[in-house]
Every structure is written in structure tokens, then in C-alpha cells.
Design goal:
The structure is a homodimer. Chain A is an alpha/beta fold. Chain A contains 7 helices and 6 strands, in the order H-H-H-E-E-E-H-E-H-E-H-E-H.
Chain lengths: 199, 199
């Protein structure tokens, strides 16, 4: 037993393929499954399969939904004049958690990446200019991640939607609130200086 | 979307029920599932169900196995004169990892716990005296965890097997190697003093 018995090893490997799961956590989860009753395991598998089967991108914004439109697109109280462009639905959830942003979203489903060969055609980008016009949008806030690929994608989108005349904004970059300047990396500090405001 | 859409929430809750998985990790895993292809998910589910279905306790020692006997019980090169009594198969794996212990195991499948109403009859204990006699065992090393319940279980087993005349030993307790005495809790320090050796 210098290595685990095969079916257990396969189960551990399956858990390891999930994002953020290391070897040790995968082992704990696999043993957790062994400790489950058959009914508990059936329920686990059902929840996972059902989730996967019933969730798909919102027809309008690309956010995840179990219906045709996502909860945000179908919420009549949201401000339709502003669209926040994000890489994925995880970002939507982060925005929604702060309960401050009341506009709409446009979920790209990734970023432009020459490295992985992902071009704009593989992303939910083409429908954005059309949405801006047909929905009477006045501002597009680009909120891709602060990475090279996120920046490239932001640039691409900005150029693509410029002809619509919409106001295009970008999230502010700088020192995270509560963080020590000493620990900020060079690029963040540079952005914080560039984006400095008067007081 | 102040809360997640229902099928996603159910999937997150399913992952949360696995040991050691917090809310944030469960969310990442659920999104990981959404990012999988259908074939990848089918493979994940297959690995988990197969693992659960094919793994059961070893007929002799109670360790997990996919066969009748576990890899250790079926290994002819192991030293059959010593049995290490552990709470679960995770402990077996920990012992096996250090590659020093060459004896057999006896896996209890838990500890005696008045709190959860788990009595000795719910554990793999009854077959131990019989094993000691029939397998010609000369030493039983009790390696239950250093908790109140682990201690109680160790006491119970010790009393149960005493009549066989086998040598009964217990793992040493003390300061973990590399740890600072300053950070050792009172009980550990007490045990370290009690178990002190001459040099």
C-alpha cells in the first residue's frame, strides 16, 4: 500500500481535477465519500449532475442561469443604462455581493489569449455593440481582470464599441483597501500613482 | 442574484458536505464542474461512484480494499507478529508513508464515543483477540488518536486483549519534532515530561 488501491486513487485523482483542490484535500474528500451512505452519495451525484445539466449561459448577457434569461437580466428593477463587462460569472457574483452595483452585466466567458489560441470569436463579444444600441446603454464599465490578457481584452472591446459613442470606463486600480504599501507590487503601486486623486 | 441560482446552490452545498470543504472552495469546485465538458463530468462521476462501489473493509483487518484482503494482509513479506491498532484507514496510510513499519494493522472504523452513542459493538474490535491467537501475534501497538475518545478506546482494547498475554504498547506522545516548546499545549508538554527518556 505504498500507493493507494486503484479505485481510491482514481477517485482522488477525480477530485484533484477540480479547481483549487490539492492532493491532501482530494484524499480527505475521497475518504469522505467512503464514509457516505449510498443514499448520500446518490444525492451528491444528483446535485452535481443536475447543476451541470440545468445551468447554461443567459441568452442576453452570458451569465449563468437555469432559465432563458439570468436573474439579473430578468430583474426589471436593474439599471439598463450601464453594462459591466466581466470575464466570467464568478466576477458577477463578486460584484453582486457588495450590493452596490445596480446595472447589467456582459459575461465574456474568458479573455483573449494568444497563448491558448483563444480569439475574440471564442468569447461572448460580438453581441455587445448590438446590446449597447438596442438597450440604450450609456456606459460600459470594463471590469476584466488586471492581467495582461485582461488588459488586452479590455483594449479590444474598447476599440470595438467606440463607434457606438457609449461612455467607456475601466475599474480603478490601486492599493487594496487595508493593505500595506510596503507589500504592494511595483505594477500596482505604479497604477496607484497614475490613478491618484486630489483631496 | 443575491443568492446563487438554485441548481448551482445545490451543487455548492453538495461539495460543502465533503470533509474539509468550505463555502469558497465549494463555489470554486462547482464552477469547475460548469467548466467541464460532459465527458469530463461523466468521468468524474464514474471515478467517484466506482471508488465508492468497489471499496470495502478488508475481511481480516478492516482496512479499505477493493479485494477480499487488503494489500497489506495479502503481502506475504509483512511481519505478522505485530499488529498496529488504528482508528481508520487514513491512519494506515500515514504509517505506510513513513515506510518504517512492516507489521500488520487492525482498523477499528472509529472510536468508542458515549457522545455519539458509538459502543465497542459498532467497531471492528471483537475479532482482535481471535486474530492475536490465531495469527501468533506477539505485540499489539495501540495507535488511536491522542483524544479523550482515542484514549478510552485504547484502554478498552488493552483490557480486552490482556488475557491473551500479548505485549501491549502505545505510541509515544510528546513535543512534535521541529516544534517549539513554547507552542506545545499543556497536555502535550505533560505527556512529554511523563515520557522523558535518559540520554
Amino acid at each position: 500500500m505504498s500507493e493507494f488501491i486503484t479505485p481510491l486513487e482514481k477517485m482522488i485523482e477525480a477530485f484533484r481535477r477540480l479547481p483549487g483542490v490539492g492532493r491532501k484535500s482530494a484524499e480527505r474528500m475521497a475518504f469522505g465519500v467512503l464514509d457516505m451512505t449510498d443514499a448520500e452519495l446518490a444525492d451528491f451525484i444528483m446535485s452535481v449532475s443536475n447543476g451541470k445539466a440545468s445551468i447554461h449561459p443567459c441568452r442576453r448577457c452570458g451569465n449563468i442561469t437555469a432559465s432563458e434569461l439570468c436573474p439579473i437580466c430578468s430583474d426589471e428593477s436593474r439599471d439598463r443604462s450601464i453594462i459591466c463587462v466581466v470575464e466570467d460569472s464568478r466576477a458577477v457574483i463578486s460584484f453582486e455581493k457588495i450590493k452596490e452595483y445596480k446595472g447589467m452585466y456582459h459575461v465574456l466567458g474568458g479573455v483573449i489569449s494568444p497563448r491558448t489560441g483563444k480569439g475574440p470569436d471564442k468569447l461572448n463579444i460580438a453581441s455587445l455593440p448590438e446590446r449597447i444600441v438596442s438597450e440604450g446603454v450609456t456606459e460600459v464599465m470594463i471590469a476584466t481582470n488586471a492581467t495582461v490578457e485582461g488588459e488586452t481584452t479590455a483594449m479590444y472591446i474598447s476599440r470595438l464599441i467606440k463607434p457606438t459613442g457609449v461612455r467607456i470606463t475601466r475599474l480603478a486600480y490601486g492599493i487594496p483597501v487595508g493593505a500595506d504599501i510596503e507589500y504592494a507590487d511595483k505594477l500596482t503601486l505604479l497604477r496607484a500613482i497614475e490613478g491618484r486623486t486630489s483631496f
